[in-house]
Amino acid sequence: MKKYSYLLLLILALVVASCSKNKDETKSNSAKKETKKIEVPQKKSNGIVLTTTNGKKIEVTKTDKGFTFSNAKGKIVLVSFFATWCPPCKAEIPHLNNLQEKYKNKIKIIGVLIEPNKDNDELKKFMNNFAINYTITNSPSNQIFANAVGGVENIPFMIMYSKKGNYITHYLGAIPEEMIDSDIESALKK
Hints:
Blueprint: H1 2-16, E1 19-20, E2 47-51, E3 57-62, E4 67-69, E5 76-82, H2 87-102, E6 107-113, H3 120-129, E7 135-137, H4 141-148, E8 154-155, E9 157-161, E10 167-172, H5 177-189
Parallel strand pairs: 5-6, 6-7
Antiparallel strand pairs: 1-8, 2-3, 3-4, 5-9, 9-10
């Protein structure tokens, strides 16, 4: 019984460990130049168009039960909202890399950067530094998508969608890889 109590406390601590999206970045980046305000593009046709770091477009379409993604037909989608300054976000990258590798043709992991005006070259260096093997989007439409899922206030924040685009579950904060893996296995059986 004591063993289960410690496990429950550990899981609770990991769930609570998250970064606030509104973190004052000037504390760690006081020397950075002030960023310009940019206009967020409106929805295009019936979806939101996200742009990957290599310029590819992903059309995200709202459904009654979730979202579909043009680059993930027939795959489970795990969307990870993150920022490059967020320690728990950085900590989850190796786990997401492992899951993308393990389920190569069965899931699509999409990292959605929630950091306005991030330079694509700087983001690519971050991706190389962490050997990210999944898709990362970096566009003003990222915020439109974050709002469309109900708003993203704390990160890391992940949402899992079925092959048909139906909402399965979500995760707030640092989550053990085994928990996500178990949810993927369950979703693949459906």
